[in-house]
Structure formats: structure tokens, C-alpha cells
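Methods, example record. To illustrate the input and output format used throughout this study, we show the complete record for Metallo-beta-lactamase class B. The sequence lines were provided to the predictor; the line carrying C-alpha cells was produced by it.
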Amino acid sequence: MKKFILLFSFLCANYSINAQKVSEPSSERHPEWTKSYPSFRIAGNLYYIGTSDLACYLIVTPKGNILINTGLASSATGIKRNIEKLGFKLSDTKILLNTQAHYDHMGAMSVIKKMTGAKLMINEGDASAAEDGGLSDYSSKGKVRDFEPVQVDRVLHDRDTIRLGGMQLVMLNHPGHTKGSCSYLFDVKDEKRKYRVLIANMPTIVTDENFSDIAAYPNIAKDYTYTLNAMRHLRFDIWLASHASQFGLSDKHKPGNAYNPEAFFDKNGYNQQISDLQKDFDEKMKGDK
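The corresponding predicted structure is encoded as:
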């Protein structure tokens, strides 16, 4: 344990030096991105370990653990602390996943990969962005590297299955927000029942440009159309998202609350989110004509 702590300190210090070369956009407009939030058990072997808004998830299995998203570059220490407060070890992480290749979800991915030796699995559309620190993301226009580049060990495709310790996660290709934005469907269970869980990457529109003017992503409108339609037809019990604010974490769970998976049963809230995003998309398309 002492050696792991020393390694963690070294890597974090080294990452801070290297990160000076990375132009991570300021999070000052989003204090909730760095505000700590107590980790807790969502359902079965699924846990929330993120900040007040940048959602990170831990899936615990007998063969090691799966970590989904890592928040900002500064989030590594908080993720390690949250995992340990649950009684687990960051060093037991075997698989790293993400929902989109943006700095607010990929920031600490490189340092955590180095610390754990976990395998990083990324959707095909975001694989190049992961490995070049976001330079190839259409919104950067090849000018901004906003997170530390990280090597991809497995490129995922729509409906691919990630397996570990009895868990099977199906990756769903939901492009638009980024070329490789994705969601995950899987089952967890507790002493009472089984739960179908969706960790959704909601297709928010992040560009002010007309879609027709984005030469680096000529299929962006087509991808948004596909994703919005596909997400309407998903079946699940529990839904979560890349940002806690998107699924109303602060309303559904208060720090210290008892274990209550049913608090995250909210198909109406999910449908409303998709409806609102469809309206945003339709408005965007009107201005693109």
C-alpha cells in the first residue's frame, strides 16, 4: 500500500508538470465540476464516485473493477479517495471506459491508466481524440489539446460487449456531441432484484456553428438525428448520465441517504430530457437552412 501511495503521489506530480502543456479549458464557470460529492452505492455493484456534476462510476466485480469517466485532470485524487471510502482500491481497476472524449470526462484518464495498468476501451469515433488529447475532436479544429493523450487498448464498435467478472456491458454508439459519444446498458442486482441500468451520454449541442459549416464533421446532423431516435427506444429501470445535473442527482440522492435504487427510476425525466434535446436540435436545424 505504501508503494502504491508513493507511486500515486509521483504520478500526480508528474502529471501536473506535463499538464502544463495541455490547454485544459477553465472550469471556473462550473464550480460544481470540482466540488466534492460523497461516493455512494447506486444499485447492486454500481457506485457513484464523481463530483457534484462530473459523473464517474465504479462497477465492482470479483475479477477487478470497471471505471467509467474520470472527470477533470485534477479529479484523480478525488476518485481515489471516493473509491477508498467505499472500501475498494483504485489499484483493482482493470477496465477504463468513457462516455465522450472531452476534457471534463477524460482529464484524469491518462494518469489513472498509468497508476492502475487498466485497459482503456474507447468507441471508434473517439479513439483518435483520446490518443491525441482532443486535437482531432471537431470542436478543437486541430488547435487545442485539452487533456493528456492516452493510449487506447481496445477500439469499441456499436453493440460491442465489455466483459469482466460476470458483468456484461453493451456499448451503444450515440454520436453527435462527439464523434464517438456512447452510452452503456447493463444489469446489476442486489438482494431484492435485478436492475437494467443505462448510463447515457445525452446528445447536447456544444457548437455555435451551423452544422453545414463544420467541415471536420460532415455527418454531425445525421449523427444527432440517429442518436436522438435511438435513445427514445431504450428500455431500462435506472438511468444515469455523464453529468449529474442531467439526471437530477441532487434531487434523487442526498449525502447520507440510505441505499435506494428506486430513487433513480425516472423514465419520465429521461423522456423529457430527450424531448428537450430534440427541440434544441430542431431549432439548430432551422438556423442551418
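Annotations derived from this record:
Residues 33-287 form a domain with the Metallo-beta-lactamase; Chain A fold (CATH 3.60.15.10).
The chain has eight helices and twelve strands.
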